[in-house]
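#struct-pred
JK: can someone run the complex with benzoic acid? inputs below
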Amino acid sequence: MVNLGDVFPDFTAQSSKGEIKFHEWLGDSWGILFSHPADYTPVCTTELSRAAAMQKDFAKRGVKMIALSCDDVESHIGWIEDIKDYSKCEFEHPIIADPKRNLAVKLGMLDPDEKDAAGLPLTARCVFIIGPDKRLKLSILYPATTGRNFDEILRVVDALQLTATKKVATPVDWKQGEACMVLPSVKAEDEAKFFPKGVTYVEVKSGKKYMRTTPQPE
Ligand code: BEZ
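RT: done, structure tokens with the ligand placed:
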């Protein structure tokens, strides 16, 4: 089990692109590890196709992507041909093999409700977003039967990267380009220094001055 803020566990595993030493593979980049229940399954194929189509969007943000699925490398290599065919895109990122569920157990990713033909539990759909400091910044966990929303994954990358560098948080349903909230930890006397575009105080009934917005920083 990994908690927010923990250093993400390092591991060595086989993948469709050879052996991966996870921390070495991450380098100084942001990273997304997203897991899949099994190869040659319909929902996973749509998800990896979307990931392939959005590869450039993630790369533009300095984010490396890596998938994991419970099957072996040979199966991954065959399945990638289907993904390329379905998505009409190149498929650049590695898929980690985890046939014995070693990583799925270590990272708390098993879905007890979905089992393979041998009765082994499948891996749930986890998204782990890891910062350049190798610490876990965000995790999302879906059951095997619910496909993820990759626009949402890109949106939260933007939100995390803004918070990491610009002292803002992002409000409900925030999208790229919209106003952000000033972090509660920023003192009023520091607002001008950190937010040259200005800060607006939103009036609330209590009269407390905690709702501060600022245009999205550059
Ligand atoms: C799928 O990827 O389609 C899938 C995998 C496991 C359980 C249910 C659906």
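RT: quick notes.
The mean pLDDT is 96.
Residues 155 and 175 are 7 Å apart (CA to CA).
JK: thanks, will look after standup
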